[in-house]
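Subject: design request, 404 residues
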C-alpha cells in the first residue's frame, strides 16, 4: 500500500523523454491518470536495439500510436507522442519546449543496459554519445527556451559504487573536510562499474554545472534495479502492456530470475551471487516520479538528489526466493562482469519516505504478477537469448566461454 503523494494540488504539464520505454511508459500513464498533461518523446531506439540483438520484449508491445489511442479509449485522456532524438535533434527539442512550455521534463531517454554498454567499442561509444549528449542537449535546450522548466532525471544507484563508502549511502552528497581544513558538502564520489554507469556519473557533473551556472532546477533520481511488469494503468488494456526484457543484455536480474523460474530453466546467478543491489517495483518508479515532479527544488537550490529504492538484497538471496517459489534450481555461472564478488549495501531512502512513499518490497505475492505475464507470453521467449552475451573484458569472456 502506498500513501497519497505529497501533492501541491496543481496539475503539471510534463514532457516525458523516453516515454516509450520500460519505466517511461507506465510513468507516462500514471502521470496522465493523476491529471497531469503528458507529452511523450522517444526515438524508438530501444525497439531498434531489439532488432539489432534479434530479441524482443516478451510482452507484445504495441506501437506508440496504438498505445496512446488505447489510453484515450480507456481513460478519455490525451497523450501526445513525438518521435525525436534527444541527443541529435537539438533544434526540434528546443522548438518543442518553446511550443509546449512544460512545467517539467522527465528524462528517461538513455541507453540503460550495462551489459549492452560493454558489448563492443561501437556500443560503448554510442552509449556515451547518446547519454551524455542527450543530458547536455536537455540543459542547453532548457536554457535556450528561456523557460523555468524543472528537469527530473533518472540516474542510478550505480553512481555510488557498491559498498565502497563503508556505511549508509546518503542521498547524493557527503560532508567532507577539504585539504587545508575547510568543511564542505560535495557530490558522493563516483565509482561506475560499466560504461553505462559512467554516463550517469558524467550526467551528474553536467547537472551540477548547469545548476550552478544557469540556476536550472534539477532533480536527479538514483534509482535501483526495477522489477515487475505492469502497473494499475498498463493492466487496463492488453494494448497498454508494458515491455518485458529477459535477454542477457537488457533483462534485469529479478525479472530474469522470475522469467527463468516460470520457464523452468536454471536461474543464471553470476559468480557467487554475493552482489548486493537495490530494488524498486515499477509501480513505485511511477509514483516516485510524480512525487519528484510535484516537489521541484527552488531556483538557485543545489541539484536535488533522491535515492529511489525500496530495499537492498543479495543476488543469491533473490535467486533463493525465486527457486523456492518455482522449484527451479539456481545455477552459479562464471560472472561476465568485472564487479566485486561480495559487497554490503546500505542505502538511505528517507527523502521519498518523508514525502509519502511507502515502498513495495520484494514479496512473492507480487512475483505472481510477473510469473503470470511470463506464462501468458511464454511462446514468445527465445531460449537462446537467456545466457549472458556481453563480457566486461577479455578475461571475463574467456572465463565465460564454457557456459552453455
Ligand atoms: P528503456 O530502454 O526501456 O527506455 C528508454 C527509452 O528511451 C526507450 O524507449 C528509448 O527508445 C528511448 N531513448 C533512448 N535514447 C533516446 C534518444 N536519444 N532520444 C529519444 N529517445 C531515446 O529503459 P528503462 O528501463 O525504461 O530506463 C529508463 C531510465 O531509467 C534510464 O535512464 C535508466 O538508466 C534509468 N533506470 C532504469 C532502471 C531499470 O532497472 N530499468 C533502473 C535504474 C535507472
Ligand atoms: N546478475 C546475475 N544474473 C543475471 C543478471 C544479473 O547474477 O542473470 C547480477 C549482475 O552481475 C549484477 C546484478 O545482478 O551484480 C544486477 O544486474 P542487473 O542487470 O539487474 O542490473 P544493472 O546492470 O546494475 O542495471 C540495472 C538497469 C540500469 C540501472 C541499474 C540500477 O539496467 O539501467 O541503472 O539496474 S543499479 O543496479 O542500482 O545501479
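Subject: RE: design request

Done. Sequence follows.
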Amino acid at each position: 500500500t502506498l500513501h497519497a503523494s505529497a501533492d501541491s494540488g496543481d496539475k503539471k504539464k510534463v514532457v516525458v523523454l523516453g516515454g516509450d520505454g520500460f519505466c517511461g511508459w507506465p510513468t507516462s500513464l500514471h502521470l496522465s491518470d493523476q491529471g497531469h498533461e503528458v507529452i511523450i518523446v522517444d526515438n524508438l531506439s530501444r525497439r531498434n536495439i531489439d532488432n539489432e540483438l534479434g530479441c524482443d520484449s516478451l510482452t507484445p508491445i504495441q506501437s506508440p500510436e496504438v498505445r496512446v489511442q488505447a489510453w484515450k479509449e480507456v481513460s478519455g485522456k490525451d497523450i501526445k507522442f513525438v518521435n525525436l532524438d534527444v541527443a541529435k535533434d537539438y533544434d526540434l527539442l528546443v522548438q518543442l519546449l518553446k511550443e509546449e512550455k512544460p512545467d517539467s521534463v522527465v528524462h528517461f531517454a538513455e541507453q540503460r543496459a550495462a551489459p549492452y554498454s560493454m558489448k563492443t567499442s561501437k556500443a560503448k561509444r554510442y552509449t556515451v554519445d547518446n547519454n551524455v549528449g542527450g543530458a547536455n542537449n536537455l540543459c542547453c535546450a532548457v536554457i535556450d527556451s528561456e523557460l523555468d522548466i524543472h528537469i527530473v532525471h533518472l540516474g542510478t544507484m550505480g553512481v555510488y559504487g557498491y559498498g565502497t563508502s563503508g556505511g549508509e549511502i546518503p542521498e547524493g552528497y557527503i560532508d567532507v573536510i577539504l585539504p587545508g581544513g575547510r568543511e564542505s558538502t560535495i557530490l558522493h564520489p563516483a565509482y561506475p562499474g560499466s560504461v553505462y554507469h559512467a554516463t550517469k556519473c558524467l550526467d551528474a557533473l553536467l547537472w551540477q554545472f548547469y545548476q550552478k551556472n544557469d540556476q536550472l532546477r534539477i532533480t536527479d533520481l538514483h534509482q535501483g534495479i526495477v522489477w515487475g511488469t505492469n502497473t494499475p494503468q498498463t493492466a487496463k488494456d492488453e494494448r497498454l502492456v508494458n515491455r518485458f526484457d529477459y535477454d542477457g543484455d537488457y533483462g534485469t536480474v529479478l525479472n530474469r530470475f522470475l522469467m527463468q523460474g516460470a520457464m523452468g530453466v536454471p536461474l543464471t546467478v553470476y559468480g557467487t551471487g554475493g552482489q548486493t543491489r537495490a530494488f524498486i517495483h515499477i509501480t513505485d518508479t511511477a509514483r516516485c516520479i510524480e512525487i519528484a515532479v510535484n516537489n521541484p527544488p527552488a531556483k538557485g537550490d543545489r541539484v536535488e538528489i533522491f535515492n529511489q529504492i525500496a530495499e537492498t538484497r543479495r543476488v543469491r538471496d533473490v535467486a533463493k526466493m525465486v527457486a523456492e517459489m518455482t522449484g527451479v534450481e539456481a545455477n552459479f555461472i562464471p560472472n561476465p562482469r568485472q564487479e566485486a564478488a561480495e559487497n554490503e549495501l546500505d542505502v538511505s531512502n528517507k527523502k521519498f519516505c518523508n514525502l509519502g512513499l511507502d515502498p513495495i518490497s520484494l514479496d512473492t505475492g507480487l512475483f505472481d504478477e510477473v510469473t503470470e505475464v511470463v506464462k501468458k507470453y511464454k511462446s514468445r521467449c527465445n531460449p537462446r537469448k537467456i545466457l549472458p552475451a556481453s563480457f566486461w573484458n577479455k578475461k571475463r569472456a574467456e572465463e565465460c566461454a564454457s557456459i552453455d
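The CA atoms of residues 55 and 374 lie 15 Å apart.
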